[in-house]
Amino acid sequence: MNQSKPISKNVFKVNLLSVSARLLSGFYERKVSQRLSVQLGGNYQVREREIIFSRSTLTKAYTFIPEVRIYSLARHQAPKGVYLASFARYRYLEMETENSGLGKEYGKIKSYGGGVLAGVHALFLDDHLSLDCFLGPHLTKHDFEGLSRETVKYDYFSLLFNTLDIRFGITAGIAF
Questions:
Q1: What structural domains does the chain harbor?
Q2: Which Pfam families does the entry mention (predicted)?
Q3: Is 47 left (phi over 0), alpha (psi -120 to 50) or beta?
Q4: In Å, how far are 23, 47, 62, 99, 128 from 43, measured between CA atoms?
Q5: Predicted confidence band of residue 52 (pLDDT cuts 50, 70, 90)
Q6: What gap in Å lies between CA 165 and CA 176, rounded to an integer?
Q7: Does the pLDDT at position 148 exceed 80?
Q8: 20 to 30 Å CA-CA from 2: which of 21, 54, 83, 129?
Q9: Span 87-123, pLDDT tens digits
């Protein structure tokens, strides 16, 4: 790599793993200094889908994720190389579920939280093709509206009792 050539400051990316969940997912990352970048991401559920291992259907879902990344100076500068990131996350879900004792229920789940990530962001083809892999824990608070405690326990036992979760992904995109 030619060190005198300026690296791309902007990256548009899509999460390759979200396609299997029927989500449109996108991210915009912007370099703000040699070691620092900010990213805004989100997703939207394209159509209704059943939730695996439950009797529920998501009818609407979206998420917003702002993030700050600090890149290592070992060999590269932002937005390329190894990084640590902190992020906030807001998720909104609407669902319907079949509860054996209560019949059909409709409800909403609003989740607020944040966490940290470690990742590797590579740029290829003269620094214009982006591939980003990340993994990290996050803590989340969930607000349930219109769902009985029994339904939440059956379908969302991990949301009810565990507020620690893992965020991971692989994104691909265009840098400019």
A1: 10-175 (2.40.160)
A2: DUF3575
A3: beta
A4: 6, 12, 5, 28, 23
A5: low
A6: 33
A7: no
A8: 83
A9: 999 999 888 877 666 677 788 889 999 999 999 999 9
